[in-house]
Structure formats: C-alpha cells, structure tokens
# Entry
Amino acid sequence: MTALRADGVYKVFGRRPGEAVRRLREGATRDDVKGLGTAAVIDASFEVQPGETFVVMGLSGSGKSTLIRMLNGLWRPTAGSVTLGDADLSTVSARELREIRRRRVSMVFQHFALLPHRTIIDNAAYPLALQDVDRTERRRRAGEALEMVGLAGWEDHLPAQLSGGMRQRVGLARALAADTDVLLMDEAFSALDPLIRREMQEQLLELQQTLGKTIVFITHDLNEAMHLGDRIAVMRDGRIVQIGTSEQILSDPANDYVAQFVADVDKSRVLTAASVMVRPAALVTTSGGPRTALREMREAQASAAYLVDRDRRFRGVLRDEDVVAAQRAGTEDLTTLVQDGLTPVAVDAPLMDVFAPSAESPLPVPVVDERGRLVGVIPRVTLLEAMSPTEVDA
Amino acid sequence: MIPESFRIPLGTWIESGVEWLTDTFEVVFDLIKTVLLALFDAVELVFAGPPWWLVALVLSGIALWAKGWRLAVGALLGFVLVLGVDQWDNAMATLALVVVASTIALAIGVPLGIWAARSDRVSTAVRPVLDFMQTMPAFVYLIPVVVIFLTGPVPGIVATIVFALAPGVRFTELGIRQVDREVVEAGHAFGSPPRRILREIQVPLAMPTIMAGVNQVIMLSLSMVVISGLVGARGLGQPVVSSLGRIDVALGFEAGIAVVILAMYLDRVTAGLSDRSPVARALRATAA
# Structure
C-alpha cells in the first residue's frame, strides 16, 4: 500500500476556483486563468511509498508549499484527492482530520514554529499533549526524541536561548515525538546556514536509516533535493514537470527547464560510481596464467588488466610489463604480480569519492559491489565527461 | 445654492431615539444601574474602607511584585502626598471607578477583539463602531448616558466603559493577528482543536500586545473618570470641576496632582505586569 497519494490535485485561490480548474483541465496555463484566481497547484499526481523520502523541488511560487499543506489537510484541494494511508483527506470531517494529524502525519516548519514561552522539552512534547499522553510518559518520549536529535541536556532551556540549527532540531524532535508514520518537512533546513544545513541533512539521513519514516521534503535547493531524496518531483508554475530519482533527473531531464535547473547542480555529490562506470577492458581470473593475461590485454589493446577471483571478487591490477617479466621467469601465480596503489570504490559512492583514487593512478578506477565483486571501472576521461555541464539546447 | 430650509434633523432623531430607548428598556437600564452601583460600592469599600496606610501599603506591595522596590517606594511617597493634600477619599473613589469600568471594558473588549481577529467580517463591522466611540467627544455621550442613568457614579462608569473599550478590542485583535502564522499552523498540523490553539498559542503569544491594550484601557478610563465628575460621579473629578467653577487654582492643582499620581501608578504597574507575561520573559531570555 502507498503511504501517501495525490490524484489530480488542484488548488486555486481566488474568486472562481471551480471555473479556473475547468479551464486548466482544458489546457489553460496559470497565466490564462489569472482573472479567476491564483492557481497554486495544477494537476499534481504522485505516490509515496512507505519508508521513502520524496522530495518536492521548485523555486518560490512553484506551488510546493501549497502542495505539502494539502498532504495534511491544512489546505483542502480545489479538485482531486489526497489519500493518506487509507484516509481520503478530501472527505473526512474536521474532527477526523485532527485525529489523522495527531496520529499519522507530523510536520517540520521552515522557521521552526516553536512555542517561545515553553521550554524545549515542552515544545517537543507538544504533539503528545494533543494525543492525551500523560505527563510522565510525555516527558519520557519527548526526552527520547530530543536525545535522538542530539539535544539531551537542553530540556529546560527556552527556544530563544538556542541557535537556529538547534531550534530546528527541536522542531524535528517534536515531529519525531509525535511518532507518526509520515513526516512532512517544509523547507525545513532552508533558514539555516549552509554548514548547519549540511549537518542537519546528514542527521536526517542517519535518523531515517533507523526510523524508516515516509518523508515528504520540500526544498528549493536542488543539491539538497538530490542529496536527500529517493525520488524527486520537480515543480514549475504549479505543475510537476518531472518525477524520478536524482540520477534520472540529472541524466535524462524531462525538458529544458529541468535541464537548466540541473546545470548548476554539484554532480559529484549526486551521481554515483554506478551511473558512469564502464565495462573493464581486460579482465583476468586468478586461475589463468600470464599467457591468458597477455592475450586479454592484447585483444583489448590495454596495458593493464583487472584480476578477479572465481567469484569475480576484485584482487588487483596487473601491468603488462610485470606479466611479461613473469612469463619469462616462468611464474604462474598472477596474484603475486598485483600492483599497489589502485583503491576500488563502492558502486554507490558519489563521484566526489572517485576523484582521489582516479588521481592516484592513470588506470581506470575499479568499482566493486558490497561483496567486493568487480562490477565496472571508471576511466578518468569518463569521470571528467560526467562532471561537465549538461548541454542545454537553446 | 442650498435652500434655506435644508436641514437634516440628525440631532432630533438621535434625541427621540434615546427617549425611545429609555422608555422601552427601562427595566434593563434599571437592572444595569443596580448592578453597576452595587459593584462600585463594593470596590470602593475595599479601597476606602480600611485605614489609609493599610491600603497604601497593599498598593505599594502590588507595585513591588509587579515591577520592583523603586516603584513601590515611589508609589508609597505618592500616596502620602495624596493624603497630604486631603484627596485620599476622592482618589480611592476614582480608583474604584477605574477598576470597575476598565474591568468591564476589558471583559467586553478582549473577547470582542479575539472574535474580530478570527473573522474578517466581524473586524470590518466593529472597526467603524470603535472609531465612533473613540473620536466622539467624551462630553457628548455623557449627555444620553445622563438621560438614561441620571447622575451619580453609574453614568460615569458607563461613559467610561464606552470611551475606554476601543483600545481593548483593537490591541487584542492586532496582537492575535500578529501571532506568527507558522506557529498557529503548527498547532493545526499537530491536530490541535481551534479552541486550544487560541488558549495555548494565540492568546499567550499575543499577551504582550493585549497587555499594552489593558494599559491603554486603564489610562483612558482614568482620563474619563475625571470628566465624569461633571455628572456627579464621586472621585477626583468633583474637586476638579468645582475648582474650575470657582477658579480655585490651589484646589485644582491638588486634585490634579492626585490624578497624575494615580495615573503613573496604574501605568507603571500594568506595564510591569505585561513584562511578567511568559512570552515577554521568554524573549528577554535571549539577551541572557
């Protein structure tokens, strides 16, 4: 079952929203219906799977904030439906909606939205008070949430005494204390300094590994989107223009707009070794001798070969001159000829982790999977090519 | 251009309106009169009943709690001065009038302000009424009030309530509307019912502004209380009015200084109270 689903969702603010939706359905643009109202979200459809981090990325005015507010019913869609678990938010009563918000979906806000007159622990316990959890239990669970975000010891301080990053940790702890399956994060890290933002992103990824929440994350920062998102929806002028993994969006942008957007992205953090690696030219197994190795190299017109064992596990690199010398000396065991200095990288490593090994040796960097098997190599030229800006048709 | 006979008899209409009101709602007005008079007598008894030094000490004690020892000492000296110029009883009657009138004005104004903050329609409806109440010269609506309630403290209290109501409504509405939208949204997002959002988020966060409104209501009450001396309300208004009639500079000044002392006391104490609200304290914690 999907955790969250949006089906043809529209949100129009203004005098004649129904009429605006009708015109938009017939293909009118946002500007065409200006006289009828402001079309914040136009025909948004997507599904979020349990445990997935789904990022909605767009510039200001793209409708992403309105979209996220329809996912917990803060706004009601003008048309279309939002389904959270098994509840259709467009048909539930106000009372049921409050119950859903208490138990099933929580939110983290851009400017933290803490209660300034309550202590940190009371802020974190706020959703629990609404869930009618008793006082001692409330403090215990809020305390745990604060510990998870690294704020143990700050319980009795006031929000004003904390830095921005720490305040957002309280915001996160509050949402975690609510213990809902779905977590909505509205530009949650946008108000923070870049360094703190980075730190918070790492912390979120770390927490997500153990908690496995379903997260919908709104951001205008593509790097953040690519770093955090399992899948990304790119929004422009109220419409979702592309949904895909970060690599799909980078390597196959749906249109010029997305292409231009991703042109500035720091690809070294987004693209993984898997997305650029190629087949190794020359491959030799440990059971073969120098003769086999030389034939492989000759056929591939390569001056080196990658040595793997019977299970394809990477064992090292052989250079042609060493193999020739070994053949003359009559050595059969290839493993003794392995050269030092070529570190393999993991298949899911971001390209930024490939630069160092690539600089160490002129040979293509070997890529191994989690069991150490050689799955590909990254020649230096491929690496440089991948890092060059995406071409945009003018 | 304008014919000689052109004259809108607005005043006459209002006059007959007031007469009609007086006749039709006599029972209601009598009830209001009885209740207000009883309230006033009770509160005046609290201030004027005990010996002066006890009242002065208690009032200074409140100043000590609300603000600090400087204000407490200043208040005590001020009260001794009021006693010294023989205006103690008048000052206590005035204080009773201010307390009764501003309590009622706030009891009406704050809920009305909350309502106006939550509904644009109410806000647009209330605004011109408040403008009217605030800008109509105070002497003018003393007249119908006297027609309805005759003389004594009751017309003074009623006129004071009408005059002092506006800032209570305005500041409350402003305060609640100014509350950070995202914090209110957080309340909704975690499933809080609107009533609880009002109680736990909007009112506490608006409290510094609401307290500024309370301060304004009390200060306006005090200024009106003196005017209501004209219609025979007991208190500092009476010596002011009679000194004006007799060109008695000495009496006028003595009564005037007593008003100033009361005003300063009430202003500083309410300001001190607003600094003690949880939000105001939380904001000060930043500096610490």
About this structure: The first strand of chain A starts at residue 4 and ends at 13. The mean pLDDT of chain A is 87. The CA atoms of residues 215 and 295 of chain A lie 53 Å apart. The interface with chain B takes residues 72, 74, 98-103, 106-107, 109-117, 126-127, 130-131, 158-161, 174, 178, 184 of chain A (CB under 8 Å).
